[in-house]
UniProtKB/TrEMBL annotation:
GO BP annotations listed: regulation of autophagosome maturation
Keywords: GTPase activation
Database matches in Gene3D superfamilies: putative rabgap domain of human tbc1 domain family member 14 like domains
Ranges for region Disordered: 13-34
Name of the protein: TBC25 protein
PROSITE patterns: TBC_RABGAP
Amino acid composition bias (Pro residues), ranges on this chain: 18-30
InterPro entries: Rab-GAP-TBC_dom, Rab-GAP_TBC_sf
Residue ranges occupied by any Rab-GAP TBC domain in the UniProt entry: 62-191
Organism in which the protein naturally occurs: Ibidorhyncha struthersii
Amino acid sequence: QVGRTLARAQAALAWPEGSPPSPPPPPSPFAPLSDADLRTYLGPGGRLLRPHDLRLHVYHGGVEPGLRKVVWRYLLNVFPAGLSGQERLAHLRRKAGEYAALKALLAARAAPAELALVGAAVRKDVVRTDRGHPYFGGPEDGHPHLAALQALLTTFALGHPRLSYCQGMSDVAAPLLAVLDDEAQAFLCFC
């Protein structure tokens, strides 16, 4: 009777004869990183004390969605080691200024043909960004988030001429921009 029941279940679920389904993956040894967990990795002044342990926790358990904006900057090495909370904020402000200057300089220095070519390549992917996501939804013309994604990727391509822009880079940059909601910070993380 058990054999017949198993045969029927296999047929219903289209399992090949004699190969039961693989067992479910073992539960994660860590729960998603929470704010309380993150604080255990920080020392006096908000300095990150155990970056390797933080990475392992995130690798095994993920990050609560509300913390991604903070944690991704650690994971993507935006901050030099040993900065306090105030020093991290100052670092972000300085880097935002550097990004604005770089963006203006590269756009001014690029030949019009190069700028048009890079802009067109980037634009093809930017307009294909998941428009079902609330951050990128709405009409295409004048959309501030699509414009920020276009600027971020164009700046990257002009600043890295040997690499330039490759199809799919927008798929990496779009979630960074959507979570961080800041063009300069998304650029730093993308780099």
